Amino acid sequence: MQNDLERQDLRRTIKEAAARLDGAAALSAARTLLNASQRTTDAMFCASSLLGVSDVLVTQMGMRRLKTFAVRSVTLEPMVPFLATEALFAGYVLDLQLGGYGSYIDELLNPNSELATSKPDLVLVLLDIEELAGPLPELCASGRNPNVDLEIQASLDRVGQLLRTFRSNNPARVLLQGLVVPEVTSLGDVADANLPLSLPAAIERLNRGLAALCASISDCAFFDVDRVAARYGRSRWRDERMYFASRLPVSVEFFKIYAENLIRFVSPLFRACRKVLCTDLDNTLWGGILGEDGPEGIATGSSFPGNCYLEYQRYLKQLSSRGILLAAVSKNNESDVRETFNTRSADLALKLEDFVATKIGWNEKAQSIRELAKELSLGLDSFVFVDDNPMECEAIRRQLPEVEVISAPIDEPWRLTEVLARKPFFDTVFITQDDVDRVQEYKAQAQRTELERQSDNRDDFLTSMEIVCTFQSALTAPLARSVQLLAKTNQFNLTTRRRSAAEIEEFASSLGGQAIAVRSRDRFGDAGVVGLALARTEGDACLIDSFLLSCRVIGRGIETAMLAQIAQQAIRDGAKRLIGQFIPTKKNAPCALFYLDHGFTQTTADDSSSIFYELDLTTSLVTSPAWITLEGTQSHELSAGIVLSS
Amino acid sequence: MSSQQVSSSLRELLADIFEVAPEEITPDSSPETLENWDSFRHLQAILAIEGEYAVQFDPQRIPELITVSLLQAELEKKGVTP
Predict the structure, then answer these.
(1) A381 and A409 housed in the same domain
(2) How much is the pLDDT for A502?
């Protein structure tokens, strides 16, 4: 802080804002004060002023209350105001209760403990080496005692047992803190580094083991305090005087950093990470301005300063590999951008196709981001926007406050990746296969839309999609997927009968029955099982009981291919008439004309709650569209007759 | 400075820690007179004073410094005029 007057001013601002119940102003002044002041008294002042208006913060700013219980074997009390303020800055009102020293086993396991009866949302488990692995320092003294690994395993087993038992009785989310790797040991730096059974090596293994343990327990995260301590200097992390005198595990100069990082690890237990990164191009993705410097003039590639931008591109590519969607939002001529991605591809770590969507043109960026949110069906609070232009950044902050805005440091391009990496918005405790696949899915959808936009002729467009339909039995789709489709499909569902697994099996196995599922893929991706039909031939008539298609693939002719497949099988089963039924619902208007469009004749009145249609199979044909390649049509497993006789 | 008066900077610091008005901090303030002065706030006060005046107390003395005048005297002994 420049001077004490400034500090007093901020404190007055906080006090006044709190008095008039202006949560946002109080919070913003508190943030400024604590970013500048190291004083514990200022943290206490901010915590008590802000918590005094916590109701306002919850109602005005949508903050979430977190009833939190900390079990610990160390002194935490002096850090509590910092934990409270850092939690507030992250959007949480922390209601923190501390357990007694060393009573953590009772707190966690006893159903009548203070912890259990307080019904916390969050439990912090903050133990030191004595509690987690007391014998390790002595066992590691020689650097060659094989019992070290046994002790690590015993420690992991003990903590695992503790957390699993806790989890079976208590739904609270858990943050388990690891250990700081010791700096001072009797073996010394050289032996510590070279002996696999040294204490630092053992603590690192223990930390990895604790992390794996947390990953195996639901709603449980590992707090890697060693990474934080190492970043700021392990040798200064702890003040030995205060550690030995008061069991204070962190030096007072790092209280804020400790609290900030602990809260960073808590946050993903309660909220999903952002999903989309929108990047500007000029002076952000590359150096220079494309419109002025031309594709050959922009800075990107292996030499400075282009390599700073290349590093940012690589960083984005890596984000994309873990499921973050990339979008380019730039004021440029689209053709110039396309040309640049073609001619400078050797100097760029990203291809234009790595972006799930691009908004390149002269529209307002706020408008572009709104469109993206709509196209990707994601909320604005899933978006991050990176731009070097302060005006653009300010415009987004004002117009779309939900979007997280990052100002690219134009004069220091080497800082951009670090600025991004320090932000918590992509933090997540785990990444699922679905997360990783999401990018591909969105990309495919965006490419289909793009191709459709470019083609003037529908048939040409559909041919260029290279659609392949694979027919298979609804029993092997798998059956659960077939039931799910019947249960969930509303729009393109002609009868909306929610058939059960047993009923599908009956269609599949009875004589003349058909239960077919269709998978579809195209040049952009595999959509999986998208359609289902149930039909039965009795005598000379085949009645289509259920017919549905996922709305993602409507309008590509897949529905016609399915109908053709049913008709052919019906003929093989001896049918001369194909009978379709439409039961109108509030949602299925999109398929009301399906049978008429395919040459059927209506046989019952319009106003009926169930309309029947008929097609004479001896005179009319249903043919699959030429642009669809069919697979599995000859597989006679689809025919129940064969199943029965085999 | 007389030990009969509490300097304004120390008074304000302790007022923050013990969450009372600065006027309530007197040389005789102690855990007996201030409800909030428990062992946790004592540690908090020590950490804050050490940071504010750039001094370090002997850990053995810390538990004994339980009136404002004792704290102030200890600071003066370290050559600090709070």
Answers:
(1) yes
(2) 84
pTM of the prediction? 0.75
DSSP codes joined into one string, A185-237: -SSHHHHHHH-TTSHHHHHHHHHHHHHHHHHTSTTEEEE-HHHHHHHH-HHHH
Residue of A607 and A413 predicted with greater confidence: A413
**Of chain B residues 19-48, which have a CB less than 8 A from chain A?**
19, 40, 43-44, 47-48
Secondary-structure class of domain B8-77 per CATH: mainly alpha
Question: CA-nearest residue of chain B to A244?
Answer: B59
Domain edge (last residue) among A22, A46, A62: A62
Cβ(A563)–Cβ(A503) below 8 Å: no
pLDDT in tens, A414-469: 999 999 999 999 999 988 877 888 888 788 777 777 777 777 777 888 888 899 99
Domain limits at A512? 461-645
The CA distance from A365 to A628, in Å, is 39
Bridge partners of A329?
A359
Bridge partners of A277, per DSSP, are A326, A384
Instruction: Answer yes or no: do A400 and A334 share one domain.
Output: yes
* Highest mean pLDDT, choosing among A492-506, A626-640, B47-61: B47-61
User: Which of B9, B10, B16, B49 has the most A C-beta neighbours within 10 Å, making it the best mutation to test the interface with A?
Assistant: B16
- Alpha helices of A377-498 — where are they, by DSSP H? 390-399, 416-421, 433-454, 458-465, 479-488
Q: Specify the length of chain A in residues.
A: 646
